[in-house]
Write a structure and sequence with these properties.
The chain is built from seven helices and no strands. With about 170 residues, it is mainly alpha-helical. It is elongated. The N terminus is likely disordered.
């Protein structure tokens, strides 16, 4: 997206698209953190984990970066004309996967359920990949911004399954 793209007529004001891109990500992050952080010192610390489990300090910077990239990716899609074929479906997929992202934190950490986490993270991963495909039909950069997220959710899936296996 070039500087001139910010000046072109769009479906809605720039400020509205910025708000729609950022607010859901911030909301998911805040609520997800509220479900996660209290569980780390006792419940999560007490779980058997695989040797590839990253140190706890890694998760905050990774998620902050990924959420920023997700917000910019969806912003690019929001700036497309509303009549763009596939735009509405792509936005729907994006927001549903974001809800599943939040739900995973609430289930895995909030409910202390690695098995429940698996039941959420598998469709989450599928929806992230579907979102990448849908964004790719509309924009060249937006799907590239989501590939690191897909990689991290793939890793999180492996980690989630491993934790469930080691603690069953």
């Amino acid at each position: 997206m070039s500087a001139s793209d910010f000046d072109r007529p769009a479906n809605s004001p720039l400020w509205r698209d910025i708000l729609i891109a950022i607010a859901p990500v911030v909301l998911a992050s805040v609520i997800g953190s509220a479900a996660t952080v209290p569980q780390i010192p006792e419940w999560y610390a007490g779980l058997a984990k695989p040797p590839f489990n990253p140190p706890n300090w890694v998760f905050g910077p990774v998620w902050t970066t990924l959420f920023g990239m997700m917000a910019y990716a969806v912003f690019r899609i929001l700036r497309l004309p509303a009549a763009s074929p596939g735009r509405a479906a792509a936005l729907w997929l994006y927001h549903v996967q974001l809800v599943l992202n939040l739900l995973w934190s609430c289930v895995f950490f909030g409910l202390n359920s690695p098995l429940g986490g698996i039941l959420v993270i598998l469709p989450l991963l599928a929806l992230v990949l579907a979102t990448i495909k849908a964004f790719g039909r509309l924009d060249k950069a937006a799907p590239l911004l989501l590939w690191p997220y897909a990689a991290w959710v793939s890793f999180a899936t492996l980690l989630n399954v491993s934790i469930w296996w080691l603690n069953r």
